[in-house]
Design brief:
Blueprint lengths: L3 H12 L8 E7 L3 E6 L4 E6 L14 H17 L7 E2 L8 E4 L6 E8 L7 H15 L7
Antiparallel strand pairs: 1-2, 2-3, 3-6, 4-6, 5-6
């Protein structure tokens, strides 16, 4: 498993694929994904490197088609509902996923960038989340 410094180098390489200026990054953690808080002068983001900490983790969740499906779903939720979700950001090529090859291992890594949401989960937001399955099955979200 690479050290934090290696993931920081990867994160900086990935961020070159987005139209961000003078970004600062801060390592958040490594579990299902390696995550970084990214901040520019005007915006905040979450960068995810889709690389689980455990080799026993189901690799299905690192497949680019699954990742893109999640990002499209979040985009639909953001655009067509009042549900507060992290909005995915497309890279400069108009893609939801940025793919890079890790230099030391030649592994392909898939990365995604989402807008950051400040704050804590309130009781109101928790109630909205609880009602989400009903809202989804009632067709309240338009497809993209």
């Amino acid at each position: 498993m690479p050290k934090i410094e290696v993931y920081e180098r990867i994160a900086k390489t990935v961020l070159n694929q987005y139209a961000l200026v003078d970004e600062k990054i801060q390592f958040l953690g490594h579990s299902e994904n390696v995550t970084f808080f990214v901040e520019t002068a005007t915006e905040k983001f979450l960068l995810r490197i889709h690389q689980p900490i455990s080799v026993s983790t189901d690799k299905q969740w690192q497949r680019p088609d699954i990742i893109e499906s999640e990002l499209l779903w979040l985009t639909a939720l953001h655009r067509h509902t009042d549900i507060v979700v992290q909005e995915p950001v497309q890279n400069q090529q108009g893609k939801w996923i940025t793919q890079i090859i890790e230099n030391d291992t030649l592994n392909i890594l898939y990365c995604s960038l989402l807008h950051w949401i400040d704050g804590n989960i309130s009781e109101t937001r928790a109630n909205i989340a609880t009602s989400l399955p009903t809202r989804l099955t009632n067709g309240s979200i338009a497809s993209t």
